[in-house]
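Title: Request for sanity check on Serine/threonine-protein kinase RsbW prediction

Description:
We are preparing a figure and want to confirm that the structure record we downloaded matches what your pipeline produces today. Could someone re-run it with the sequence below and paste the raw structure tokens into this thread? We only need the token string, no images.
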Amino acid sequence: MTQLTGQAVTDDVVHLTVPADGGYLGVLRTATAGLAARLQFALDEIEDLRIAVDEACAMLLAIATRDAELECRFAVTEDALTVEVTVPTVRGATLPAESSFAWKVLTALTTSASATAADGRATIALLTRRSGGY
């Protein structure tokens, strides 16, 4: 996976794996909020990031294989949080186009968003930098 931020501190990388089922997304939203709070993100930034993670996961769940697991990697740096979500995909699956509403949501709520799909897996990476005022 490509990391969007600079070098992450080794101890500040969290990996969570949950079943690729919408019922488990609350775990990822809670982890996202907790890590963003640790970075002293503003409350509205935390909520934006929670929504972005939820949207990214929804995009991936739509193309996930049956009984798949959703892998989420959180990398914490001094001023940013990178969230990478990966899932095995069904044959021929494609992510929504960057002009789609879902991508507009991701790019509006984060500093940057990217996606890759190769070898039967899709990954969406979200980078959010803390704003100056905290």
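Thanks, this matches our download. Helices lie at 25-38, 43-61, 101-109.
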